[in-house]
Amino acid sequence: MTSLSQRSSGLVQRRTEASRSAAADKDKPSAGEEPEPRRGEEPEDDEQGDSKETRLTLMEEVLLLGLKDREGYTSFWNDCISSGLRGCMLIELALRGRLQLDACGMRRKSLLARKVICKSDAPTGDVLLDEALKHVKETQPPETVQSWIELLSGETWNPLKLHYQLRNVRERLAKNLVEKGVLTTEKQNFLLFDMTTHPLTNNTIKQRLIKKVQEAVLERWVNDPQRMDRRLLALIFLAHSSDVLENAFAPLLDEQYDLAMKRVRSLLDLEPEGESLKPQANELLWAVVAAFTK
User: Fold this and answer.
1) What is the rounded CA–CA span in Å between residue 58 and residue 47?
2) What's the 3-state SS for 12-59?
3) What kind and span of H or E run contains 130?
4) Using CA atoms, how far apart are residues 75 and 78, in angstroms rounded to an integer?
5) What is the pLDDT of residues 76-131, one digit of tens each?
């Protein structure tokens, strides 16, 4: 074992690697403690939560809520999830400090009239998010939240802007979930064609997600959106806009279901303009909410 020699008062004192490790451990936070973020800083979203859990983006969580467990695909009748996933991208990028709304100036503009601007172009590590971020950064003049949801979804009549569309989003998200061990990949025959599906393989992750959503509006309900975790608040709004929130509440008893829906309705009845003015509010989050609830 190596040692470090120090001379003091004519004597040679030895400090072993073990003693140095003990000293270093003393300076570390004890088990269960986490270093506090600096004042005024918000920890980046993908570093929050239990590191032992599989971390999912808002897009992946919404898709997972919408996927049929055994069949491995979303409902053919769901025409809302496409735009909902694009809203997830904008909020995810905002929570990670990449996007924000432009300053409203002396004459206050509505959330839906303000433009989305790039605050930081640092890569997120997620291909879809980085692709959306690149579009926002390179677009001049800037576009509004409503416009970006339509452009990223391909719902535009302007052929010059079709290149903004993010293609195969659900398939790409499903592959991300396969890599994280949540889903698997299979081929299914639907009479006239074969389709790649992604059945659930890790039910624990999905049940944890469903429980998190249920507890947010039942056991941990605080009746104040500003006191709710921003990611969880966004997940509830976007799951509703994507028409998949019902899947999280389906297992509940009738009384619990009624209470959960009543509280979700109270969130949907909020005025995004007013909420965005409150301290610590994320303006882009509320702009996306306004776009889906207008």
Assistant:
1) 14
2) EEEEEHHHHHHHHHHHCCCCCCCCCCCCCCCCCHHHCCCCCCCCCCHH
3) helix 127-138
4) 5
5) 889 899 999 999 999 999 999 999 999 887 678 899 999 999 999 999 999 999 99
Is residue 47 over pLDDT 50? no
Judge if pTM exceeds 0.85. no
Is-contact 214 252, C-beta < 8 A? Answer: yes
Q: Is the peptide bond before 141 cis (omega within 30 degrees of 0)?
A: yes
How wide is the angle at C-alpha 276 spanned by C-alphas 274 and 277, nearest 5°? 70
Other beta carbons less than 10 A from residue 35's beta carbon:
8
Residue 187: its H or E element: strand 186-190
Tokens of 28: 């570390």
| CA-CA-CA-CA dihedral for 149, 185, 195, 71, to nearest 10 | -80
